[in-house]
Design a protein that fits this description.
single chain, Histone H3 K4-specific methyltransferase SET7/9 N-terminal domain, alpha+beta, disordered N terminus, 12 strands
């Protein structure tokens, strides 16, 4: 009986291991295009995607073929363009967008839509705040005093 249980556990372990493999795809030019774990035919775990010039395009976690967790996106020149959270392939929580050399936008998302506040910085200094509801701009402020007056419950 004990031998049967050990065999069953070993068989189950080997079977589950055989359903997980590290996958790589390539461009026609034989340059690496993507790499990461496939489990039961779906992307699971950390994945990397590359441009044909071999610079990284994006990287982040998958769970059952859906983006989950924190992701990073880059330009073909290798510069970080944006980063943020996914839950089940939907942008959520705070995202950071790097616009130009000295401008950064921190923006809240919910269900893949801008929802909440967007804070615009130039050279590290906040110069504008915006408010979104279901991806529609509902307010914009260039004065911190007027923003706080009209949004006393704002927290970020």
């Amino acid at each position: 009986m004990m031998l049967r249980i050990v065999f069953l556990l070993f068989t189950t372990f080997c079977f589950s291991q055989s359903n997980k493999a590290y996958s790589k795809t390539y461009y026609e030019s034989q340059v690496l295009k993507s790499e990461g774990w496939i489990e039961n035919g779906k992307k699971n775990g950390y994945w990397y995607f590359y441009f044909e010039n071999e610079n990284i395009d994006s990287k982040g976690d998958y769970v059952n073929d859906l983006k989950n967790g924190y992701w990073f996106y880059y330009g073909t020149d290798g510069k970080l363009l944006k980063e943020g959270h996914y839950v089940n392939n939907q942008k959520t929580a705070w995202w950071i967008l790097y616009v130009g050399d000295h401008t950064t936008i921190k923006i809240q998302y919910e269900n893949n839509m801008r929802e909440g506040y967007a804070l615009l910085y130039k050279n590290g200094n906040l110069y504008k705040a915006e408010k979104y509801s279901k991806d529609t701009l509902t307010g914009s402020w260039t004065s911190l005093k007027s923003f706080k007056k009209q949004n006393p419950d704002a927290f970020f």
